[in-house]
Design a protein that fits this description.
The chain is of the alpha/beta class. 48% of the residues lie in helices and 15% in strands. Strand 1, helix 2 and strand 2 form a beta-alpha-beta unit. It is globular, with a radius of gyration of 20 Å.
């Protein structure tokens, strides 16, 4: 009979946890409880963001974020909606993701406006969805390490307290979870992109992975939404209009509803 050594025990427990996190060989689970969304209006206060001929990114982003919050409260009242800020206030980038982490958010959405180099304003238009670049995974690994008990098992930190960042067992677990969040971030980005294109008739620059700092420490699916080019005259007018902002907010909320349905049946 094979002797169960402490090392073998750890391997078995890690293997079991790896399979449970990945969902391999499991019976269908009850629906996932999607209960908290954090909405982040890009920039604010002393940081105006990009600018057009007459408007600032921080004002457009905050206005759209508030509309998203209102719609979510009206149409998804079982979901807790948290704003990183509701006034024209400067919040450091790392604190924005910390707010999402501390509130155990299931989705983090950061709302922005794009801008093109001077002299090319008319050449660029359309939405762009950004998720954190997987090639720069260390920052998110750190965030997952700090929040692992939320997403894996309640006693994770106690059980695996001796694991350092170079421990293969810890890496397997956290890497699996990070892969899952990356997939879900891309899924939400694609769903939102579809809403913008098919419902609002917007031009799209697609869903891309970049080293976006505001998403770097988010320990959950997270997407940065570039709602349009503020220095393109036509798009600046659209982004500042009630019609444009309402369309953008409604598309975000529709995408959230579809996203929740899809991850509940995965």
């Amino acid at each position: 009979m094979t002797k169960i050594t402490p090392r073998l025990k750890i391997f078995i427990s890690v293997l079991f946890l790896f399979l449970s996190v990945s969902g391999f060989g499991q019976q269908p689970k009850p629906s996932f409880k999607f209960k908290t969304i954090v909405i982040d209006a890009g920039h604010g206060g002393k940081d105006p963001g990009a600018h057009g001929a007459y408007s600032l990114e921080k004002n457009i982003a905050l206005s759209i974020a508030k509309k998203v919050q209102l719609l979510l409260n009206q149409e998804m009242d079982d979901v807790n909606v948290i704003m990183t800020h509701s006034t024209d206030k400067f919040i450091p980038l790392n604190q924005r993701s910390e707010i999402a982490n501390e509130n155990n958010a299931n989705l983090f959405i950061s709302i922005h406006c794009n801008s093109s180099p001077e002299g090319t304003a008319n050449a660029h238009k359309g939405v762009l969805l950004l998720v954190y670049g997987f090639h720069r995974q260390q920052e998110q690994m750190e965030a997952l390490r700090e929040n692992a008990s939320i997403y894996i098992e309640k006693d994770y930190k106690k059980t695996y307290a001796e694991y350092d960042q170079n421990n293969p067992a810890a890496f397997i677990i956290l890497n699996t979870v990070m892969h899952k969040y990356r997939e879900q971030s891309i899924l939400f980005g694609k769903l939102l992109n579809k809403e913008f294109v098919e419902n609002d008739g917007r031009k799209s620059n697609g869903v891309k992975e970049q080293g976006v700092l505001v998403l770097a420490h988010s320990a959950m699916p997270a997407v940065l939404v570039e709602t349009g080019y503020i220095n393109n005259p036509d798009e600046e007018q659209y982004l500042n209009s009630e019609t444009g902002q309402d369309e953008i907010a409604n598309s975000i909320v529709r995408a959230i509803k579809i996203y929740r349905q899809q991850i509940n049946v995965q």
